[in-house]
Amino acid sequence: MPVAVEIDVADVMNKGRMGPFQLVTLALCAMCMIVDGFDVQAISYVAPAIVREWHIAKASLGPVFSASLAGMLLGSLAFTPLADRLGRRPVLIASTLLLAAFTAATPLAASVGQLIAWRLLAGLSLGAIIPNAVALASEYSPPSIRVSVMMIVSVGFVLGGLISGTSAAWLIPAFGWHAVFYVGAVVPLLSAALMAVALPESMQFLIVRQRHREKVRKWLARVDPALPIGEHTVFVVRERANPGSPVLNLFRDGKAMGTLLLWAMNFSNLLCVFFLANWLPLLMNDAGHSTSLAVMAGAAMWCGGIASNLLLGRVVERFGFTAVLTCSFIAAGLAMASIGEVRGVAWLALAAIFVAGFCVLGNQTALNALAATYYPTSIRATGMGWALGSGRLGSIVGPVVGGVLLRLRWPTEQLFFCATIPLVVAVVAVLMFDRLSLPAGQDAREQLDGRAPEALDGGAR
């Protein structure tokens, strides 16, 4: 009787190098992020054209912006548990197809109410994309560069926003605002087609769920053709499936405190991100700067985010999440407070905004990577989705709080100083996470899903 040969799938992924198969997978994940970023930013770029064409007040579009964010919040909470039951691949493909459909329908809106409905539905689709794309990227990268890979893949979100703005600047004068959404529908449609052909499922997920072992056999052979894979090969992972609700499992096995602290970090950080994104141009205008410089201020923030996503991953892998996030949140607070003080001097203001964008946007991607590292395969998408969902709530609160304080005629210096308070909360949450998130008596390597020591160097501790 032939002897069964065991192959640990996680070990193969941890010890292997990045080959063409993994690179294609990561490229498709990055494409998902670009699609997400394009659609999120598109509505803000077409807003002036809609106001002119429909002869409505600018304030009328406020609920439209909120609808997208609310949809993303609900999508993160509702659809990511499905990915931990059905798989990353089907949820990513389905979400992208639905996004294409709802984006194509957006130009058909004839009223603000219809526009709100379509943007809410598009937001629901968007809410499932980031957690699953980042989770899949983490599962197809070796631990020594896993955080860097997740952060580089996440650059796609910022690039999508920049591509959206560049496309809108050309499409709107030539074809009208409707064309931005038609282009925005074609891109996810093509992405879904490519994913249907070339995107693999998480092999760890399939083994944990005991499904499609033939597919695991095929994909693992592409990762490492030298593996002795035969008819009697048995594939294993050092993890068991967690029965019951994926959401409830976020609070079991000693993960409750870590889950709540991750939610607090995401809420605080995204509150600051969207406070800056929504109010920077207006506040720079109020400081006496031209409209073009006010737009440059917004661009400086996103350029800072691109730089941090490209650079911060290696720093996290060297010094760990706790040290990097603590320093970055403190630096973000100092930069935010400085914006209000130096806003009258253009180059100083742009420098402070760049640093603030570098920190808060880099922090958000690092928090996504931290959640992907903290949760095991069986609840990874749910853990990331619900952490991001709490952040989406912060993204809704941030602009609203800014508007309330502006109506109360708070000085700009006090506005930016007030925006540092959530960052103080985030620092406290990071330090508490470092101390309290691991269950007493449980080995850190077991808690972090059997990752190699290289991964733990960039882990929570």
Automatic annotation (TrEMBL):
Entry-linked CDD domains: MFS_PcaK_like (cd17365)
Gene3D superfamilies: MFS general substrate transporter like domains (1.20.1250.20)
Membrane topology: Multi-pass membrane protein
Domain Major facilitator superfamily (MFS) profile residues, every copy: 25-437
Membrane-spanning segments: 23-47, 59-79, 91-110, 116-137, 149-173, 179-199, 260-280, 292-312, 319-339, 345-363, 414-433
Domain of life from the UniProt record: Bacteria
One GO location term (cellular component): plasma membrane
GO-annotated molecular function: carboxylic acid transmembrane transporter activity
Keyword set includes Transmembrane: yes
Name assigned to this protein: MFS transporter
